[in-house]
Amino acid sequence: MNLFSIFFTALKSRFSPIVSKIRLFFNWNFIKTQIFTRIRNFFIMLLDVRPKHKRDYYSVGRWLVSKRLVFLIVIVIGILSLWYVVANVNSMKNEGGKVAKTYYYSNPLLRFAKGNVRIKARSGYIAYEGNVDKGFVTGNGTLYNKSGGLVYKGAFNENKFEGQGTDYYENGVMRYSGTFANNLYNGQGKYYRSDGSLEYSGEFEEGMKNGAGELYDISSTKVYTGNFSYDSIVYSDLLGITTEEVSEKYKGKRSVYTDNNYFAVLMPDINAMYIGNPGTDSLEGKMTTKSIYVMNDHFTFGKQTAVTIEDLRKILGNEVYQGNSEVIMPEAVIINYLNANSRGTVLKGSVNMKTTKTLDDVTTVNSVDKSYEVYLYSFEKGGLRYDFVTSDKEGGFAFYSITTSSSGGVSNG
Fold first, then answer.
1. By the 8 A CB rule, do 265 and 363 touch?
2. Packing angle of the helix pair 67-88, 28-47 (nearest 10 deg)
3. Any idea what DSSP says for residue 250?
4. Cα 383 to Cα 304: distance, rounded to the nearest angstrom
5. Is residue 333 part of a domain?
6. What is the per-residue pLDDT across 137-157, written as a single tens digit (0 to 9) for each?
7. Helix (H, G, I), strand (E, B) or coil at 322
8. What pLDDT shows up at residue 275?
9. Which of 135, 172, 278, 322 could staple 111 via S-S, CB 3.0–4.6 A?
10. Are 306 and 214 part of one and the same domain?
């Protein structure tokens, strides 16, 4: 027994250090200490960017760059990139139960995204929800403003409004519904005022009313049907047609003024007046329009707009006439109308007229103050004569009239 005890004691003393080491290696505190020590030593070595030998440098031209410093920069960039990707991509459930990834608009991963996503603006709100393809907003989607209101809903093509869509005012009221091309209204559509009432329905081009269309008043009641050229009514379409045909086009409010020389119909919903003579203009003895007055202080011709006489010369060429003229009845009616509606900025004061009201919308003009003078500029282009009414030479004009010139023809004025 003594011999066995001696042998066991000797054997235990032999293997005891090995067992102690094994126990130590499996001790969590020891493992944790070793891990932290190695990590600490790694970063100490990593942050010690001071080169100790020539081989620790990269040669860049005349410069020597520490290899450890370059390695440290690469590590830092990698960590920041990983953090950026994790911070900017998360998943949300959409209404269909599918996963819709959410990206910040500046996230590089968005360039590779395809399908339904959400895109955040710099300040963090959801600015877009819908389809993307290879970094482009393409397909159907919705744009939002900071407050979560709708900006646009419809079709996109490579980040542009393209196809059928709807855009909105800042207050959330629908502004336009129809087709788009290159971010602009193009094709058939409807345009609404900020109060929600329908203003126009018809053709658009490059964001403007262009082609056949219909105008509506503030109660969304149709007042005019005709052609438009870049946001302006083609008023010359009203020349030379019968008053019945004018009535088919214009359904708005009207006031009739007559005297021994003129039959004038004011159409305030389209800022115009037509002039005609009864019974002498057509084979059927019907009244046809002789001239159209446009109560605008600007003139559009295609895409060009004029607000001064000099602007008019650039569009219509040199005037064929200019000079003072006694005011005539239609001009007197328009001058008084503009002043009554606080639009008489070019012509000063009203014209004295003696009138008799024969019906609610019919007025007989007995006399006009002939001492009131206007200054006229007359131009001819495209078979039409344009007479611009102002108070003095050059400067702006108050309104103008369109008549058929002796050479005939039509224009888009």
1. no
2. 120
3. B
4. 18
5. yes
6. 999 999 999 999 999 999 999
7. strand
8. 96
9. 135
10. no
What is the extent of the structural domain holding 71?
A: 2-50+59-87
Q: How many CA atoms lie within 13 A of 42 on its CB side?
A: 9
**What's this model's pTM, rounded to 2 decimal places?**
0.74
Element (H, E) at 288: strand 288-294
Of 64 and 132, the one with more pLDDT: 132
Q: How many domains does the chain have?
A: 3
Q: Domain for residue 76, yes or no?
A: yes
DSSP 339-405: HHTT--SSS-SPPPEEEEEEETTEEEEEEE-TT-EEEEEEEEETTEEEEEEESSSSS--SEEEEEE-
H or E element that contains 14: helix 2-25
Tokens 């108070």 label which residue?
A: 391
Residues 143 and 211 in one domain: yes
Close Cβ partners of 42 (under 8 Å, ≥ 6 residues apart): none
Q: Is residue 81, in this structure, part of any structural domain at all?
A: yes
Vertex 189: Cα angle to 183 and 194 (nearest 5): 85
Same structural domain, 106 and 207: yes
What's the pLDDT tens digit per position in 261-314? Answer: 999 999 999 999 999 865 554 445 578 999 999 999 999 999 999 999 999 999
3-state secondary structure 235-277: HHHHCCCEHHHHHHHECCCCEEEECCCCEEEEEHHHCEEEEEE
pLDDT confidence of residue 2: 62
SS3 89: coil
Any idea what DSSP says for residue 193? -
Please give the structure tokens belonging to residue 122.
Answer: 């710099």
Q: Cα torsion for 309, 315, 319, 322, to the nearest 10°?
A: -20
Both 351 and 208 in one domain: the answer is no
364 and 349 in a common domain: yes
Q: Scanning the structure block, which residue is given the tokens 């305030």?
A: 268
**At CA 411, angle to CA 410 and CA 413, rounded to 5?**
135
Q: Which of 193, 227, 261 is the last residue of a domain?
A: 227
